[in-house]
Amino acid sequence: MLKGKDILSALDLEPDDIVDLMGLADRFREEPRSSAASGRIMTTAFFEPSTRTRLSFTFAMTRLGGNVVDLGPEEVTSRAKGETFEDTIRMLDGYGPDLFVIRHGQPGSAAAAAEIAAAPVINAGDGTNEHPTQALTDLYTLRREYGRLDGLTLAMVGDLKYSRTTSSLSYALSKFPNNKVYYVSPPQLRMRPEVLDNISGRLRYEEVERLEDVKEPLHAVYMTRVQRERFSDLSEYERLKSYYVLTPEVLLRLPGRPIVMHPLPRIAEIPESLDSHPQSRYFQQAQNGMYVRMALIVRVLGLNA
To answer: What is the Cα 232 distance to its own chain's centre?
Structure first.
């Protein structure tokens, strides 16, 4: 049961919760308009830039008949005057929203907000830590493609050190049996040790440096961008930003017939020539996020739908 629960980590979600959300997302795909959230208010507070996550949550709540109050960019709020994150959350909570959706650049920020707010908090990305609703979106995309969430083999490629989406997806995949991930990255951007510790014994994985080192048939190749905003040394960013580029020719050489996924935005790692490729799913993946977030809002608020 997710009613009233903070969604801070993909580890917070049980397999039954995930399967239930997938089924409800399918229902909203068939009928994406509802009055289930009529009279409810969701507050979005994004302290980092966002397009897909912020807007898909907004569309999701609006399609459910609810209302959205957005904090707006920091430069038009008292954050620009030096107000602390904690005081901003206290102030917003005082207005009585039914739900918070929060993104912030500091790992642990969503958990800190949950300690303050009376309303449930959904983590929309806390620095390099996690992005659980993206993981749900990714699982939903895989389930629509393959009809299951177990026995899948993925290659996660690129910036794994700073990517919150790959950590959350790893945790989510570890909830289901017989899944495996190839972590493909340069040595400087390998998956963080705490993520590997959390999946140990629950998700099989191999760390490799080249896509050519992947020998098993893949169900999906999950590309990530090298995140300029996480680098203190921009010369290192420039050196690594195009380390992996998935062209149609590279895709053809991968074992199996994997779908191509990406949490977006992309930079150079996926060229536009791949957009119309029959294995590409990243724009559908972004659309799927709205249906998944509709389902999550309904369950966290305990609504009838």
So the answer is: 24
